[in-house]
Structure to design on (810 residues):
């Protein structure tokens, strides 16, 4: 493998032992291919940087390596042993993981969380043992920290929680950690703490441990990793020593070289119009937000960098907290269908008409004929594939359910439509249909504010705001909306 | 850092409300301030405290047991019949009941069912079984249970001793032992345990079984006090036990529970009843007044939480 060749010169011992090697891993969730033949080999004593845009398969490969997800195809071997599977097998081979979201129990103390994570911690005085180990490790990594290990995790600040989680993961109780996967470990640490962590990672690697580092701060990756893997569309597209990359070449490697989709050029006269909705810069950082009538605005950037919060704030700014009233100014298309989109027990028609019942009612009673008329109208317009609108919503495929949610929003008279990455897991055919409807509606003067993790969708927009760490860091207009520009803005360069 | 931990703060309100109620009772009826007076005030709290601990174990894994009252009634009926006449069969029945609790815990987790619905259904099963055992009030308490609940230790009445022992033992199990840490971990962040390779099913089953054990003890203690049983003897325990957990500083979700607080909560609820009798409030109004006391205490806690949160933000 390339990996072995690249590092052979750097290694002292003659026989490089792969801590983990994953070959030809394929994972799919329904129609969506999360991993499409990814190859990752991690040797002892190296720090791998893993970069890629949303949906490139980073978290999926992490879950495959730590045993939480078994691949549909491909071989995964821990220290050459490919017979074992699962979380416990991975842990037994010293694979540890720090997840992006907090994975400690907030109601337990730091010491008690040690007990949960380190199963070999036992005996009558495990509390004292655990406290000594975690204190020593925290002192070693984050010298000068002020964390009281007897406090519950819920009482700690976000940064302290992340420090604790990292320290717990690096602790050796019984077995030594051989590979530690750090998924965005510095996302809530300040520059000083991040530097301490990176220094520790380099020291850990020097003593023979392996680290896989996932970060959106490219400077961090370039300065810490010895080898960098770039993932795109479920594959590893580049695998070279870190010295071969620069910030620019990394961004290029992440982007796709495929066809520039021709965008619909809409009339430019609305640029002069005054904004119909505006928000100041979020948290006092970055750029302010404004939208004009008939615009299609894209909210881009890596997932979870504040786009959904922005949509919720926009929604809140136009609707009252206390009295719901008639919300005819703004409507919302939810991204997580099962969580806040569909009413699973209701029929397709009921799911569609719920947002427009006000307009369909006479004297507070719903006019059935008009409701059915609305259903028949939208069934034809967006081609909901069902024999009857009276069928349950769950009888539809995911993509068709999503179309119903779109129809729900579009059937209202609201001039502004917010969309929270609604196309996740929707097949390409449906997407094209929805894009067509959106273009049509935008031309008719509707305003769309669209958070999407997919570059093709952002490119459909008139303007795009790129988010990083909860703030808008770039505004791209028209032809400036390219994958490269969005990537460059969403991955910080040298600044940590 | 000298700031008290959140666990201590959490115990402050229940302890304070118990003290205030106790002082009020002593003020209204100074004769309660004696060995016999205290025992009379608190002896009915012992089974309630045990049931509250049982409920707390269920709540600590983010579930709720609505069958607690009928289950305690059922175990009381078993204690007053089989456990007294043929102890071996009685013990077997109670052991089987605990096993059923473990199975309920497993089913709720594996089938992803709402615990409220499953336990509500089970409450009719337990109620029916209790009626089958004792169609009319009757039975006799086992001698040892009667002896235990009416014994007179020197200086401190048995009701207080028993409450302290219950609080200590459940504190050891739930707050200090590894097992307790894991159970609260299930309530706090189940995925964290799964990622560390623990079996959440067996932990939940164990939590339910332990709850079943405490509920069995509640039934036996109740029969020891009342000398005979009835199929409806402990119906109030369902809501009393939930109220006791919450009053004692526990929360419905997130594995935030306090065994000492739960026992204090049970004592407070029992005392609230006596307090209202001493005030000569007619029994018709007592339940409402008891509810009012509950609302006041919980409002105080919300206030405290808000102050705590504000301090954190500063």
């Amino acid at each position: 493998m390339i990996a072995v060749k690249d590092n052979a010169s750097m290694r002292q011992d003659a026989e490089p032992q792969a801590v983990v090697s994953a070959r030809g891993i394929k994972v799919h969730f329904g129609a969506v291919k999360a991993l499409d033949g990814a190859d990752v080999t991690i040797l002892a004593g190296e720090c791998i940087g893993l970069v890629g845009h949303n949906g490139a398969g980073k978290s999926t490969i992490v879950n495959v390596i730590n045993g939480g997800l078994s691949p549909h195809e491909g071989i995964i071997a821990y220290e050459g042993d490919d017979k074992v599977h699962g979380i416990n097998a991975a842990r037994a081979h010293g694979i540890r993981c720090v997840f992006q979201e907090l994975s400690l129990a907030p109601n337990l103390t730091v010491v008690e969380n040690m007990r949960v994570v380190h199963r070999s911690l036992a005996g009558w005085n495990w509390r004292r043992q655990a406290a000594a180990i975690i204190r020593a490790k925290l002192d070693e990594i984050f010298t000068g920290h002020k964390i009281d290990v007897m406090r519950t995790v819920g009482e700690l600040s976000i940064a302290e929680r992340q420090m604790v989680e990292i320290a717990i993961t690096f602790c050796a109780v019984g077995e030594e950690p051989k590979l530690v996967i750090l998924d965005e470990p510095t996302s809530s640490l300040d520059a000083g703490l991040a530097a301490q962590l990176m220094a520790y990672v380099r020291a850990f690697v020097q003593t023979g441990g392996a680290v896989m580092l996932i970060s959106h701060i490219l400077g961090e990756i370039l300065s810490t990793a010895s080898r960098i893997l770039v993932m795109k569309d479920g594959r590893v597209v580049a695998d070279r020593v870190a010295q071969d990359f620069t910030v620019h070449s990394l961004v290029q490697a992440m982007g796709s070289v495929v066809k520039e989709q021709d965008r619909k050029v809409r009339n430019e006269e609305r640029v002069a119009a005054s904004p119909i909705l505006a928000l100041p810069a979020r948290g006092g950082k970055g750029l302010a937000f404004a939208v004009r009538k008939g615009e299609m605005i894209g909210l881009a950037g890596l997932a979870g960098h504040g786009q959904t919060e922005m949509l919720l704030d926009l929604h809140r700014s136009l609707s009252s907290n206390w009295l719901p009233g008639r919300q005819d100014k703004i409507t919302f298309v939810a991204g997580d269908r099962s969580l806040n989109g569909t009413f699973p027990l209701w029929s397709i028609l009921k799911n569609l008409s719920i947002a427009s019942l006000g307009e369909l009612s006479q004297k507070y009673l719903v006019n059935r004929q008009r409701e059915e008329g609305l259903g028949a109208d939208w069934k034809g317009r967006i081609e909901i594939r069902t024999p009857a609108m009276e069928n349950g919503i769950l009888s539809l495929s995911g993509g068709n359910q999503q179309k119903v949610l779109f129809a729900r929003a579009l059937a209202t008279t609201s001039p502004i439509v917010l969309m929270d990455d609604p196309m996740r897991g929707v097949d390409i055919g449906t997407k094209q249909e929805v894009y067509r409807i959106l273009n049509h509606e935008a031309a008719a003067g509707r305003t769309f504010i669209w958070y999407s993790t997919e570059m093709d969708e952002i490119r459909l927009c008139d303007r795009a705001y790129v988010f990083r760490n909860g703030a808008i860091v770039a505004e791209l207009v028209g032809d400036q909306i390219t994958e490269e520009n969005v990537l460059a803005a969403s991955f910080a360069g040298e600044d940590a | 850092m000298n700031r008290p931990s959140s666990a201590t703060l959490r115990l402050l309100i229940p302890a304070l409300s118990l003290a205030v109620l106790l002082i009020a009772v002593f003020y209204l009826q100074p004769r309660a301030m004696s060995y016999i007076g205290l025992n009379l005030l608190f002896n009915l709290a012992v089974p309630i405290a045990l049931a509250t601990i049982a409920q707390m174990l269920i709540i600590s894994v983010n579930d709720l047991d609505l069958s607690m009252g009928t289950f305690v009634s059922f175990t009381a009926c078993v204690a007053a019949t089989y456990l007294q006449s043929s102890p071996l069969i009685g013990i077997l029945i109670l052991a089987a009941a605990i096993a059923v609790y473990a199975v309920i815990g497993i089913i709720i987790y594996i089938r992803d069912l709402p615990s409220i619905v499953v336990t509500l259904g089970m409450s009719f099963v337990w109620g029916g079984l209790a009626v089958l055992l004792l169609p009319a009030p009757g039975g006799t308490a086992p001698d040892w249970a009667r002896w235990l609940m009416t014994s007179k230790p020197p200086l401190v009445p048995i009701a207080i001793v028993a409450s302290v022992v219950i609080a200590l033992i459940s504190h050891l199990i739930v707050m200090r032992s590894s097992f307790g840490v894991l159970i609260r971990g299930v309530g706090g962040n189940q995925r964290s345990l799964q990622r560390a390779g623990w079996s959440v099913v067996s932990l939940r089953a164990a939590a339910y079984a332990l709850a079943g054990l405490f509920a069995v003890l509640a039934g036996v203690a109740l029969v020891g006090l009342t000398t005979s049983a009835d199929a409806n003897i402990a119906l109030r325990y369902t809501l009393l036990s939930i109220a006791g957990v919450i009053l004692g500083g526990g929360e419905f979700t997130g594995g935030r529970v306090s065994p000492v607080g739960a026992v204090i909560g049970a004592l407070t609820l029992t005392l609230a009843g006596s307090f209202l009798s001493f005030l000569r409030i007619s029994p018709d109004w007592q339940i409402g007044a008891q509810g009012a006391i509950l609302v006041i205490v919980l409002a105080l806690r919300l206030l405290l939480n808000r102050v705590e949160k504000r301090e954190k933000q500063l």
The mean pLDDT of chain B is 91. Chain B has 15 helices and no strands. Chain B has one domain: 10-306. Residues 10-306 of chain B form a domain with the ABC transporter involved in vitamin B12 uptake, BtuC fold (CATH 1.10.3470).
